[in-house]
Specification:
This protein has 102 residues and is α/β, with parallel strands linked by helices. The protein has one domain: Transcription Regulator spoIIAA (2-Layer Sandwich). The strands form 2 sheets. The chain has a 4-stranded parallel β-sheet with strand order 1-3-5-6, covered by helices on one side. Strands 2-4 form a two-stranded parallel sheet. α3 links the parallel β5 and β6. α1 crosses α2 and α2 crosses α3. It is globular and about 30 Å long.
């Protein structure tokens, strides 16, 4: 008998302002620790986010939950740079996809 792995997708809307590591922990606490396929991080309303929030977001979503892919939609250019830097430092850049605002 073989085990079948089911990976679910999740959408997480981001608020206008985010800033702390603890905020990131709280934002993603509802995600399971395993079986996460893709997390769509919706940032259309976001105006500002700190580098520490970006780093903890990568830690919580791509590292702690071993998410297969995270797609970040419409972040600010600065937040996108923070996410990309964090994913490179943590060795998970291949699982991060960013779609910038138009």
């Amino acid at each position: 008998m073989s085990a079948t792995s089911v990976h679910q997708s999740y959408v997480v809307e981001q608020p206008r302002l985010v800033g702390s590591r603890s905020s990131a922990v709280e934002r993603f606490a509802h995600l399971p620790r395993a079986g996460v396929g893709t997390v769509f991080l919706r940032c259309e309303r976001m105006e500002a986010a700190s580098q520490s929030f970006a780093d903890e977001t990568v830690a919580q979503v791509l590292c702690a939950r071993n998410t297969r892919q995270r797609v970040v939609i419409a972040p600010t250019t600065r937040f996108a740079r923070h996410l990309q830097g964090a994913s490179l430092r943590r060795g998970v850049a291949d699982r991060l996809e960013v779609t910038l605002r138009l």
